[in-house]
Amino acid sequence: MKVPHQPLNPYTRYFKQVYSRYQQNRDLISVGAYQRGSDPRVDQAIALHPRLESYLQQDMRQSVNFKDSLKALDGLGLMEPLPVNASDDRGKVIR
User: Fold this and answer.
1) Helix, strand, coil percent values for the chain (each to nearest 5)
2) Which residues of 7-24 are buried (b: 16+ CB within 10 A; e: fewer)?
3) pLDDT tens-digit map of 27-53
């Protein structure tokens, strides 16, 4: 079955960026080597991580359709998503 391509909504893009930032710094965070305040984006990723993990966990017998998953993502209370065509840490434009 071929899944049709759908552009990422801004909250999905933001979720991925924040989750990725946490994962990139996971080792420093887990051993206590990360100093809070040294990077506001990592601080934000640490603060949001429990909500992101909660969103990703689902009972194996639970089925959630795409529309409901987007509604749940929107309901996480994440900060405002990055504007379309924002740039990432390396200045690469995100679409």
Assistant:
1) 50, 0, 50
2) eeebbbbbbebbbebbee
3) 999 999 999 999 999 999 999 999 999
